[in-house]
Write a structure and sequence with these properties.
Structural class: alpha/beta
Strand content: 15-25%
Largest sheet: 5 strands, parallel
CATH superfamily: Glucose-6-phosphate isomerase like protein, domain 1
Radius of gyration: 27 Å
Order of helices and strands: EEHEEHHEHEHHEHEHEH
Distance between the termini: 62 Å
Shape: globular
CATH topology: Rossmann fold
Number of helices: 9
């Protein structure tokens, strides 16, 4: 450990016994303050002062997310839960797909549903996240257009009375719209999870849960909450009739 000469007479570093100087230096930088240590000033490590403006955005974003969550139609969430219960009871498949950031939400719903709910139930969910298969499909089928990546999977597996759920913030992603159109055509039950004005998906899906706000991040946050409401209904041990 080294120590600086505070008198400035010698600018060379000297090998001396350990001191708390460097620890204070780090702490001072983290606190973003100007402090004086034995004649030396440790100046701000971050350019620009912390202002009320920089601190207020997280509060505004929190308010937007809460507003989006408040807009969720719980009655429609319950209808989806009932559809999923009936599908499990009758051995029907559930296919979930998402566009953009929503593809991870689709996979997350799958994880919640099978993580614990399937372990202790005699009739496990037969559920598949179509988005998880995209890398394989893109490698294998060079001629496959992105608009039909989910349709091609549904052609192989979906049957009448199965459930196809599409998650899309805008409601207009071609791949999701095509999947719901095809699913409805062959007799599947269709569910949309949308935002803003709902887009085309809200008009095509038999049941649509819409988050009618304009901020994309807030919509996606609310979609995750919706999927948690559905998934944890079956996974939560306190939900007695879910078993």
């Amino acid at each position: 450990m080294v120590r600086l000469d505070p008198r400035g007479r010698n600018n060379q570093l000297k090998n001396l016994e350990p001191t708390g100087f460097h620890r204070h230096l780090v702490v001072a930088a983290l606190l973003n303050k100007v402090v004086s240590l034995t004649g030396f000033e440790v100046r701000r490590a971050v350019k620009g002062p912390l202002t009320a403006k920089t601190m207020e955005y997280p509060g505004r974003y929190k308010a937007m997310v809460l507003n989006a969550i408040q807009s969720i139609d719980l009655g429609k969430v319950d209808q989806v839960i009932q559809l999923f219960k009936a599908a499990r009871a009758h051995g029907r498949r559930i296919f979930v797909c998402g566009s953009g950031g929503s593809d991870s939400v689709a996979s997350h719903l799958l994880c919640d549903l099978v993580k614990e709910a399937n372990y202790s139930h005699p009739s496990p969910f037969r559920i598949l996240a179509l988005s998880d298969q995209l890398p394989k499909l893109i490698r294998i089928q060079d001629g496959l257009t992105k608009d039909r990546v989910f349709v091609e999977q549904l052609k192989n597996f979906a049957e009448p009375e199965d459930i196809v759920m599409g998650i899309c913030a805008s409601g207009n992603a071609p791949s999701i719209v095509s999947a719901i159109e095809y699913a409805a055509w062959i007799g599947c039950r269709t569910v949309g999870v949308t935002g803003a004005d709902g887009g085309k998906l809200s008009q095509l899906a038999e049941l649509n849960i819409q988050v009618p706000v304009s901020h994309m991040g807030s919509i996606e946050d609310a979609h995750l909450v919706i999927c948690h409401m559905i998934g944890y209904y079956f996974a939560d041990p306190e939900t007695s009739d879910a078993r």
